[in-house]
Structure formats: structure tokens, C-alpha cells
Description:
51% helix; single chain; mainly alpha; two-stranded antiparallel sheet
Amino acid sequence: MYLSGIDRLRAEGTVSKRFADAFPNEAGRLRIDVCRVLDVVFSLGALIFVLPLMLATAAAIKVQDGGPILFGHMRIGKGGRAFRCWKFRSMVIDAEVRLAALLARDPGARAEWEADHKLRRDPRVTALGRFIRLTSIDELPQLLNVLRGEMSLVGPRPIVPDEARRYGRWFRHYCAVRPGITGIWQVSGRNDVDYRRRVAMDVLLAKTVTPKRYLVILLATVPAVARRSGSY
């Protein structure tokens, strides 16, 4: 089964004690209104602060190959509704064609993709793309998704429709909240965490998030990004 609880994650060392202690076993439900207010306030503040960086990144991507600046991928949001999740484009223009060709000829890459929907050595990623991924700059446009109410700053990792089946009976918990820019998975190793633990972390957050935990995760995101833990 995918979800085994915070105690198992703590015992396995997947989540630090300091971080895990902010997630006691409790039946309390999410108080969304406060978190939504925090989303709007913090996102507006962050956008003002990072706007020069976003403009510079947009210009660099355009100069790189003349292609689109943003990449919008369909993800599953609250209530199971699909939305377009925005990122700065970090891949070549014909990324989907290259992915299909790679998976067709390389069994190892195909197995890695089927396991995690990620490739550690992804040939589609540009040199600039590698940098903005390592620094998480590519995710800054998702602040617009937050302001639109499609995402939260803190929540489960936004998933594509093909991933829903991997959540099994826990998918309803994922759909109960807005997916987030950051969450337990993002501050606990990101791509170094296997998919089963990723699902457990996402569902745990969806079931237990409160304003206090929201802030704990938000603060933990800063050192996680600085360490570039699990980013590729």
C-alpha cells in the first residue's frame, strides 16, 4: 500500500525529525481559508521580489533558440479538475518527439521513465534548462497558478493524468486540496525519493496540512533549494 504514515517515513529517515514533528497523527482537517490568504499574500510578495529574475530568465530562453518562453503542461488539480501548470521552458523545442524516439530505442531510459516519469540524464534539457532546474527558477511562473487559485504554495506535487492510477485509493485525498509548488516531497529529497514514498508524502500532506505546517514547509523549502537536493 502506498501510504504508511509519517511514523514509517520518520523511521526510514525519509523525513527529518524536526520536519516530521510538525506532522503529528491527528484527525484535524484542513482549514483552507487561512492557507489561501497566505498563498495570495506570499505569492504577490514573491512576484514583486523575483520579477527582475523572471524577466532575465525569459529573455535568456528567447535568445537561446527563439522558442516559447513558457511551457504549460496539463496537471490534475483540486477536485480532479485539469489545469495548465506553467514553467519556464527548460527543454528543446521538439522535446516530445525526442522523448518518444529515446524511449523507443533505449530500454533503460524507458524503464526509468515508466518508474518515475523522470530521466536523470535527460537529453531534452538544454544547458540553460539544467541551470534553471537545479535552482528551481523554472517553477517561478507557477506563482501565477497560485494567484489564479489553481495551485497553492504548499501542497502535493501536481501530477499528470497518467499518474493518477499510481495513487490508487489515495487519489481522493490528493484531489481534496490544491497541488503545491513545494511540499514534503520537495523538501525531503525530491527526485531522490522513490515514487511510493512520494505518494505517501503527498497524501500525508493532503490529509494533515494546517497553517502551521504550511509555514514549516515553506521555511524548509529555502535550504532545500539552496542545497539543490534531488534536483536534476
